[in-house]
Design a protein that fits this description.
Elements (H helix, E strand, L loop, with lengths): L4 H11 L26 E7 L3 H4 L3 H11 L4 E7 L3 H10 L17 E5 L6 H10 L15 E5 L15 E3 L6 H10 L6 H9 L4 E2 L4 E5 L5 E6 L8 E2 L25 E4 L1 E2 L9 H5 L4 E2 L2 H15 L3 E5 L9 H11 L6 E3 L9 H7 L8 E6 L3 H7 L5 H13 L4 E8 L6 H22 L4 E8 L16 H14 L5 E5 L2 H11 L5 H10 L13 H10 L4 H5 L14 E2 L4 H12 L58
Helix pairs in contact: 5-17, 9-10, 13-14, 14-15, 17-18
């Protein structure tokens, strides 16, 4: 007989002292929402498939929690993946996955909404479904179980998880989550097929079982076509044209989280066009919040939560149009209140140092920049053109204003990268440290983070292969040999973890069998270095008859159909290919606030910078084709690509 909420509460009283951080599993935080189960007519389990410490820092997930609970007839409860010690106890004691506030089993909810921001969470999703007492495969779940939806950045290529999720939300969820909830609320008692057909008719909702995929003999995709009339041939992403006021009712967690601060999103989208950046492509167009709205949100957050640090977030915070005005207003409002305000994602070539200097900061521990590459040749290839001298000059200004630590983030493995380009990372880090030593002596520090580039869907680099394991190891060896000594610290990721991210992000629907087999072999928490089991993944590939290299190290033909081609991010594939060919010639595109490059977003959405209606931002006019620089070579005629 299934456990009741009372049974689960009693069981937790007996077991929580046996696990680390029992505060992860009890609920009841300040600002958490509790509702009478019988007084609401629709119930949603909001799941984040990682531990509480990480999930509670996810802004998008928290926004949707707030939106649903603002509906008087709806209740959204929180669900996280239990850490391994708690999972062992739950399985031993027969405790199913439950909502933190209601203590109700997940199977009693109407909807299970899972946030998947990164691909390494895929096996955690399966584990979460299994802990809830649900079949992991969508076709084995009928209307007795909650409908399972998923959204987040990892869902822009939903195919690897198509076997397990009933429906994906493509794009932004603020409006879509209510459309889905209201749709299902009106279909109580309907069959699962009826529910999914109704969901498939909602803009931005992808129901994978309503699409058939065929493959060529070489393993590439031949076609992706809908098999029911409700399913569109292409799923256009959802977008919120005008950002609503920021979320302010943050829950105050019981335990330390990875970001122990309250975030405020000041801007969504980016116009810089870095060719490796998935987020910069899929979150277009740019939308900004008004200064007074951000300041009002900051005041409410401090008043209602007690957080002492605020994060003003965006993909490129210093590109926010009224950033100087915002910084001055925030500084004036919180002067003398011991409130720290961080402005991450600053660009080296912008007014970053002056901005940080003006923000209220209680301590100056570290200043972060992401050059991504250390030679101007490589920066041109990735479309992040920053003069070398500017990096050094900015570092000098940072040190001169009191910071003793600079964090530099780079990527290795970019297309056409050589060991000379990697050596330049070492030289640049040492040059930055030398600037710090002139001001702070031996107190100056440079922390160098080096990740390995993974070609992502919906980017200009989706056609390129992942760097080989031999090359990755050689580049990392060079870095480890020379980025060392007093004041220099190096962090890097293991090549096997990069391979995992590559095949999960670029996989097709056949990868579902691999993911399920790897999970049954024990893989979970793949984003945690100590838990990643590369051997289990290789065994799963072998048993499923698939080749890792097919998904990771194979260059793509210009006209190949990608597994994600039916997912429309409103940026044309033709534009991405054009940009990729420009990268091969070392050509760059500038900030598209200054010149429109016809990426495709304009015909579908009106980009707005909502400061006031009179200040709405429009893309500049498109230059005639004859006036635009053309790529040096084209593999095929670009007009044949959408």
């Amino acid at each position: 007989m299934p456990l009741t909420a009372h049974d689960i509460e009693q069981a937790l009283e007996q077991v929580l002292l046996k696990v680390q951080k029992p505060g992860r599993y009890v609920g009841g935080e300040f600002n958490s929402v509790r509702k009478d189960w019988d007084e609401v007519t629709f119930r949603v389990a909001m799941a984040f498939p990682d531990v509480y410490d990480i999930g509670m820092s996810n802004l998008g997930w928290m926004i949707l929690y707030g939106i649903l609970n603002d509906q008087p007839d709806m209740f959204a409860d929180r669900v996280f993946s239990p850490w391994t010690d708690m999972e062992a106890v739950m399985r031993a004691e027969g405790i199913p996955l439950y909502g933190l506030e209601s203590k109700r089993p997940v199977t009693e909810f109407d909807l299970l909404a899972i946030s998947i921001p990164y691909e390494q969470l895929y096996t955690n999703v399966l584990n979460l479904l299994d802990l809830a007492g649900m079949p992991v495969r969508a076709t084995e779940r009928d209307a007795r179980y909650p409908v399972v939806i998923a959204g987040g950045h990892a869902c822009y290529n939903p195919e690897p998880m198509a076997d397990f999720i009933d429906a994906f939300v493509i794009g932004e969820g603020e409006e879509a989550i209510l459309d889905i909830a209201r749709c299902l609320q009106g279909l109580r008692g309907a069959s699962r097929d009826e529910q999914l057909r109704a969901l498939a008719a909602i803009e931005g909702v992808y129901v994978p079982r309503f699409y058939d995929v065929d493959y060529h003999p070489d393993g590439t995709v031949a076609r992706i076509e809908p098999n029911v009339p409700e399913a569109p041939s292409r799923i256009l992403k959802r977008i919120v044209p005008i950002l609503p006021p920021p979320f302010t009712r943050f829950l105050v967690p019981h335990v330390d989280t990875v970001h122990n601060r309250a975030p405020i999103e000041i801007m969504r989208g980016c116009t810089r066009g870095c060719r490796f950046c998935h987020a910069g492509m899929v979150t277009r167009p740019v939308r900004e919040r008004p200064v007074e709205e951000v300041v009002a949100a900051a005041e409410e957050i401090v008043r209602s939560t007690g957080f002492e640090e605020l994060g003003l977030l965006s993909l490129s915070s210093s590109d926010y149009t009224h950033v100087k005005e915002l910084v001055k207003a925030i500084g004036a409002r919180f002067a003398g209140q011991n409130i720290s305000v961080s402005l991450p994602s600053l660009r080296i070539e912008s007014v970053s140092v002056d901005l940080m200097d003006a923000l209220p900061v209680t301590r100056r521990s570290g200043f972060t920049f992401a050059p991504e590459a250390a030679t101007e040749r490589m920066r041109n290839i990735i479309n992040k053109a920053v003069p070398h001298r500017q990096v050094i000059d900015t570092a000098r200004e940072v040190y001169a204003r009191g910071w003793v630590t600079i964090k530099l983030y780079f990527m290795i493995g970019h297309p056409s990268e050589t060991l000379e380009d990697v050596q330049a990372i070492i030289d640049l880090a040492k040059a930055v440290l030398a600037e710090g030593r002139r001001i702070h002596g031996k107190k100056a520090t440079v922390n160098v983070g080096v990740s390995t580039f993974v070609p992502k869907p919906h980017t200009p680099f989706q056609w390129v292969p992942l760097d080989t394991l031999e090359q990755i190891r050689a580049k990392q060896a060079l870095l480890r040999q020379q980025v060392r000594g007093h004041g220099l610290n190096l962090r890097w990721n293991r090549p096997e973890e990069t391979v995992l991210e590559a095949f999960l992000s670029r996989g097709d629907r056949r990868l579902g069998a691999v993911i399920e087999r790897a999970w049954r072999l024990g893989t979970k928490f793949d984003a945690w270095q100590e838990h990643h089991d590369h051997a289990a993944w290789l065994r799963a590939f072998d048993e499923c008859g698939l080749d890792v290299a097919f998904y990771t190290h194979r260059p793509r033909a210009a006209d190949e159909i990608f597994p994600w081609d039916h997912i429309d991010i409103a940026v044309k594939k033709k534009y991405l290919l054009d940009d990729y060919l420009m990268s091969q010639a070392g050509e760059t595109r500038g900030d598209c606030r200054n010149q429109c490059y016809a990426c495709g977003i304009l015909p579908k959405f009106t980009p707005v910078r909502m400061q006031t209606p009179a200040d709405a931002w429009e893309c500049p006019p498109v230059k005639p084709r004859s006036e635009r620089r053309q790529p040096a070579q084209a593999v095929i005629a670009l007009d044949s690509i959408r």
